[in-house]
Amino acid sequence: MKGITLVKLFTILAVLPLLLFSCNKDAPQQVQNVAAAEVVTPVSNEGKIIPNQYIVILKDAAVAPAISYANGPFTDRAAKSQFMKEKSTIVIDQLNRFLIDQEIDPTKVLAYYTAVMSGFAIQLTEAEYEKLSKNNKVASLEHDREESLPDFKIESIDNSGARAQTTPCGITRAGGAANAGTARWIWIVDTGIDLDHPDLNVQTSYSATFAGGTANDCNGHGTHVAGTAAARNNSIGVVGVAANAPVVAVKVFSCSGSGSTSGILSGLNHVASNDLAGDVVNMSLGGYYGNGCSTGSSYRTILNSLSNAGTRVASAAGNSSAHAKYYQPACVNAPNVLTVASMTCSRNWSSFSNYGRGPCDFIATGSSVYSTYLNGGYATLSGTSMATPHVAGIMQVRNALPRSSGSVSNRGASYPIAVR
Q: Which terminal CB of the chain, N or C, has fewer other CB atoms within 10 Å?
């Protein structure tokens, strides 16, 4: 036994200097390698990047979002809204503590995301960016970007006052109008809505702005979108696919139609704090992201969360005659998240529409669409923005994804026409 003990002692004494050398030389390199492997950086450096401005999402294990405190799905909207408001204050406190721990001033935060993901939009120095990119609590870190309405065409505006109701061609192509129930709401994430338009059922108490001013529309785009989805069946103007469905203005664009990814995420955070299963979100908007969009887009987490909770989303493919896989949120697909391309009333491909089966799920009428507009008026507009609310209205009426009837072909691919 004594011999064995001496051998062990000799071995320990012999190895100890090597261990000490290893600790002094190899450990920093090992730590550096581990840190390098965990670095989180933006997936894409393309698009209209806002310098030194980032969207940072933390892992749920680090800071859990407000919805994680709930025992199950909500059936009462007011109860959910109050619950999410209370729990969001907890999430914000935890996010601020995280930033302070990183020696980053919380007053640099531009927006907090608390409902179904925990994170923030923030301005960072290069040193602060490097520090966050190496923090193992960070799930994703993306550039904030300038966003805008897809380039749509205004063909005519009619402010002559109330006129006899007509059914626009796009509504007919979508299977006609249906008198919708009011339990399921359509959230219009856009330029706002003409809040007192006589042809729209606007839920003003839940409408909100994330682009300054009020939720009232000063551009016209959001009001036009709302009418296609849900204009009243009331003998004047037009009728929407989901006639009389409640529409909620979530203003994320200025009067000129400009905005940012961080601002749109704030709008979606508002939706996720107040929606119920069966609600629909219309996103007639987008911007160029570039390669890796479907996995790197800042919209991916929140849209997937909405989808999983039973809220359905319709996104515009975009109007650049390009592949939709490079544009967000068009590139993001999930079971309840659909991307919509545009066709003419005669069921031909709209020349401006982005394309690509995979990101694009359905096609609807987006050329020469007549709908509600500013100051109680009406207008004819063209764009995938105009095609998308047809699908939003269909999903509200059906409380399900659209059916298809016929298709439109383009570049060797076939796009199913969405109908209710």
A: N
Do 254 and 105 share a structural domain? no
pTM of this prediction? Answer: 0.89
Is 81 an annotated catalytic residue? no
Per-residue pLDDT at 10 = 39
Helix (H, G, I), strand (E, B) or coil at 324: helix
197 catalytic, yes or no?
no
Contact 156, 380 (CB under 8 A): yes
pLDDT at 162: 66
Of 353, 348, 360, 411, which Cα lies nearest the Cα of 382? 353
Question: Whose CA is closest to 138, among 197, 78, 81, 95?
Answer: 95
**Alpha-carbon dihedral angle through residues 152, 157, 159, 164, given to the nearest 10 degrees:** -100
Q: Record the tokens describing residue 83, joined without a space.
A: 């619950």
CB atoms within 10 A of CB 28: 10
User: Which of 221, 224, 323, 390 is an active site residue?
Assistant: 221
**Last residue in a domain, options 146, 170, 192:** 146
**Buried (b) or exposed (e) across 289-305, using 16+ Cβ within 10 A?**
bbeebbebbbbbbbbbb
The number of folded domains in the chain is 2
214 & 91 share domain: no
Domain of residue 300: give its range: 153-419
In the chain, pLDDT over 70 holds for what percent of residues?
91
How many Cα atoms sit within 13 Å of 154 on the Cβ side? Answer: 13
Question: Which helix (H) or strand (E) element contains residue 73?
Answer: none
Query: Which residue among the candidates 118, 144, 148, 190 is catalytic per the annotation?
Result: 190
Ranges of H-type helices in 244-402: 261-274, 293-296, 300-308, 384-398
Taking 60 as the threshold, does the pLDDT of residue 300 lie above it?
yes
**DSSP per-residue string spanning 65-96:** -GGGG-SS--S-HHHHHHHHHHHHHHHHHHHH
Inter-residue contact 341 to 367 (CB < 8 Å)? no
Question: Would residue 221 show up in a list of annotated catalytic residues for this protein?
Answer: yes
Length of the chain: 420
Catalytic one of 88, 315, 385, 390: 385
Checking if the pLDDT of 5 tops 70, the result is no
